[in-house]
Amino acid sequence: MGRLRLIVPAGAALGIMMLALFADGPERAMHSTDVAARPAQMWTIEGVGRLFGIGVTGTNDLWAVGSTPGKGGYRLGSGIPVAIPAEGAITHWDGTTWKLVASINVGEGAVRHELWDVAGASSDDVWAVGKYEDKNWKSSTLVAHWDGTEWKVIPSPNVGAGESELTGVAALGSNDVWAVGSASKGPLVIHWDGEQWEVVPVPESRGKLNKIVAITARDMWAVGSSGGDTLTMHWDGAVWERIASPNIRSASLSDLVGILGPGNEELGNILEGVSAVASDDVWAVGYATDNWPGNRLPFEWPIVMHWDGRTWSLITQPDSKMAYKVSDDEIAYQVQSSLHAVADRASHDVWAVGSWNGMWPVEVTVVHWDGTEWIAIPCPASGAQNLGQIRVLTDIVIAGNDVWAVGVGMAGEDEGSQSRGFVLRPGNAPCATPQPTVPPSVQTVPTPVQTVYGPVQTIPVAVPSIGHR
């Protein structure tokens, strides 16, 4: 998953009226019949402050990564809650329960570690990528590997004298693993050949890459942003090439949503997730945003793009339209919705996750593409008070008949707020009568507000901390 961006607008006491959420009418159950009829289930894992990435090597073999809560509270940087200090957190699902199995700490001098994504070629060959920061908050790439027995930190390259980080990884085999991110000189792509990680040249000198998907060894996509535009790059087995991709501009926004947009300001376009059914069926998601000075009502609009083998096209977005009462005689319309990740099982079965902001709280978003339209999946984690007032889904995968997503919940925007990483398995049963089955080995935490979502399960565990080997 790419970098998480949480927007908490100023003036939370303003009145708010929701005009529409992801569909023009009431929420409807998803059309897909591949997922068993059941309510959503959620887990929190003791010792995990945030979860950013999730990967799968088997139906009962999933990994999720992020960071520990940290011991010194949080600072806010660009709207992102940052644990200080914190270690990289690695969690695992074995078919019964989620457990924190390892924490990553590269040693003295590093004050914060984060893992952003995880992928595996097999159950004994799994990679996690991220970054660590020194006491001056300079970041460097961080890579860890699971060999079936233990996690080890593997040396990884950095480019230039500035900061470097890795946010996406794709594993094709033991000697063919790719990771993407950013460095001081622009997008960063590195490759593992079975012996070492090496930097691979890219044709772009600014911006960053957030996510990568591998269809074959000669057909890969990486997405991100560059200079305020969406960035899509393709690997053909020999070179990376930038492919033209569309953007949402302020001039077309009012026509698109039929409401008052952000005036004539330019919008920045960011892609954060990518997945592929086939070479001619690739999806990318993200959001368009404004960041102009003095904007008291920050703006975000979801981006959904599709590659048909020839061109990238914007697809009708699931929309969230908000109206804020600015004064007695003025209503300013505001959009607060973003998508952070996408996963697919077939051309008619695509899932995307993110967040939408109804002024307060910030809620999770789960939407499904049935081949014709995007439909909101009802009540996955909205209203889960034990997760705090800010709840965002950051990544998603499909394992067999199950859809899995991970995210972060946070009590508030102040620096002292603690966060909790959580795992969500979306369901398709109505919100009113969920009766999930809790595995007997999992401890259920009493949380009355969770009765409409399924119990939140918290698993305590003693975790070894690992460093460079």
Describe the 3D structure:
There is one protein chain. This protein is mainly beta and 469 residues long. Helix content is 2%, strand content 52%. The strands form 9 sheets. Strands 31-32-33-2-34 form a 5-stranded mixed sheet, with no helix packed on it. Strand 11 (139-146) and strand 12 form a beta hairpin. It is globular.
List keywords for this structure.
2% helix; 52% strand; mainly beta; 5-stranded mixed sheet; 1 helix; globular; single chain; 469 residues
Whole-number average pLDDT?
Answer: 73
Please give the oligomerization state of what you see: single chain
Low-confidence stretches: 1-36, 72-81, 251-264, 292-297, 319-334, 429-465
What percent of the residues sit in helical stretches (DSSP H or I)? under 10%
Q: Which secondary-structure class do the elements indicate?
A: mainly beta
Largest sheet: 5 strands, mixed
Q: Over the alpha carbons, how many angstroms does the gyration radius reach?
A: 21 Å
Quantity of strands, as a count: 35
The rounded distance between the terminal residues' Cα atoms is: 26 Å
Strand content is over 45%
Shape: globular
**How is the largest sheet built, in terms of strand order?**
31-32-33-2-34
Query: Helical element count?
Result: 1
Summarize the structure.
The chain has 469 residues and is mainly beta. It contains one helix and 35 strands.
What secondary-structure arrangement, pairings included, does this model have?
Layout: E1 16-21, E2 41-45, E3 50-58, E4 61-67, E5 74-77, E6 80-83, E7 88-93, E8 98-104, E9 110-122, E10 125-134, E11 139-146, E12 151-153, E13 164-173, E14 176-183, E15 186-192, E16 197-199, E17 208-216, E18 219-226, E19 229-235, E20 240-243, H1 250-257, E21 268-278, E22 281-289, E23 300-307, E24 312-314, E25 320-327, E26 330-334, E27 337-346, E28 349-357, E29 362-369, E30 374-376, E31 390-399, E32 402-410, E33 419-425, E34 456-459, E35 465-466
Parallel strand pairs: 2-34, 8-35
Antiparallel strand pairs: 1-25, 2-33, 3-4, 4-7, 5-6, 7-8, 9-10, 10-11, 11-12, 13-14, 14-15, 15-16, 17-18, 18-19, 19-20, 21-22, 22-23, 23-24, 25-26, 27-28, 28-29, 29-30, 31-32, 32-33
